[in-house]
Design brief:
Elements lengths: L9 E5 L4 H12 L3 E6 L7 E4 L2 E6 L2 H8 L3 E4 L3 H14 L3 E4 L6 H13 L3 E3 L5 E4 L3 E4 L9 E8 L2 H10 L5 E6 L10 H10 L5 E7 L4 H12 L4 E6 L23 H9 L4 E3 L2 H20 L1
Parallel strand pairs: 1-2, 1-5, 2-4, 5-6, 6-7, 10-11, 10-12, 12-13, 13-14
Antiparallel strand pairs: 3-4, 8-9, 8-11
Helix pairs in contact: 3-4, 5-9, 6-7, 7-8
Length: 300
């Protein structure tokens, strides 16, 4: 299985006919994603030829859903128009909107997140790499070739780059799903949402949680793990070498005093039994060691 995205998912791409949309639509198709249409009101009725796949362009998300049965949209719309694009998708009743766009004003994000939540649309992002269920589907910009095969690791990460690195480090083991939730101050799907979904997924054996300095999302995730998660969790926190008093990385990486520091997050996770690596490579080794130990116990 997988979380949020499977081989059955039918995907629209809002902004497909733009430069980034075209490039990443081609990559998603190559990864096996069932892209059933693009959305651009100015180019409705046209088609786009992606090598061996011809993809129709619809004038709206609702039109695309009615024609294709789409249940996922990937948003490559520029920041000034992203709010309207997500609201359009939510109005149409899409189940999942993956918002790749970065640089969206926070007040726009707050507005469309609340609007989508009321209408039952899950948002992943914004300012995120999307999500991938290897061997099934890829919605966003995660390079499919770094996760060549499906496996039993579930990954949730604030950082796109670290998503890619951990997937590469663990490529021989494989993943059920990897979700890049984004690093903005306000995101739709959270660490906790993914932890809950991976806990319920029978094909996920172990969860990797990647956080970074700023905010308290990782501390809240630690509290949730203590109460609700029975599967092993391995963590990594980016930002241990960040200089004090400097704003680093994502817009959400804001540290105030001792709150939001990498050390505080590490302590919170370790207090509930999560092993936290000091580097991505060490984190990968902790994952492999834990999987090996679990299998040894099972076999003995």
């Amino acid at each position: 299985m997988a979380i949020f995205l499977t081989k059955e998912s039918k995907v629209l791409v809002q902004g497909m006919t733009g430069g980034e949309g075209m490039k990443h639509t081609r990559r998603m198709l190559a990864a096996g994603t069932d892209i059933v249409g693009g959305v651009n009101p100015r180019k409705a009725g046209r088609t786009v030829d992606f090598d061996d796949r011809v993809v129709p362009v619809f004038g709206s998300v609702s039109e695309g859903m009615a024609a294709t049965g789409a249940d996922v949209t990937v948003v490559f719309v520029p920041p000034p128009f992203a709010k309207a694009a997500v609201i359009e998708a939510a109005d149409a009743g899409i189940a999942l909107a993956v918002v790749i766009t970065e640089g969206i004003p926070v007040h726009d994000t707050v507005a469309f997140q609340a609007y989508a939540r009321e209408r039952g649309t899950r948002i992943v992002g914004p300012n995120c790499p999307g999500l991938i269920s290897p061997g099934q589907s890829n919605a966003g910009i995660i390079p499919a070739d770094i996760a060549a095969k499906p496996g039993r690791i579930g990954l949730v990460s604030k950082s796109g780059t670290l998503t890619y690195q951990l997937m590469y480090e663990l490529r021989e083991t494989g993943f059920s799903s990897a979700v890049g939730i984004g690093g903005d101050p306000v995101v739709g799907t959270t660490h906790i949402d993914c932890l809950a979904a991976f806990e319920d997924d029978p094909d996920t054996e172990l969860i990797v949680l990647i956080g970074e300095i700023g905010g308290d999302a990782e501390e809240r995730a630690a509290a949730y793990i203590a109460e609700r998660v029975t599967k092993p969790v391995i963590g990594y926190i980016a930002g241990f070498t960040a200089p004090e008093g400097k704003t680093m990385g994502h817009a959400g990486a804001i540290v105030s005093g001792s709150s939001g520091t990498a050390e505080a997050k590490k302590k919170a996770l370790e207090a509930v039994g999560v092993r936290v690596g000091s580097t991505p490579s060490e984190t990968a080794r902790l994952v492999l060691d834990r999987l090996a130990a679990s299998r040894d116990v099972t076999h003995n």
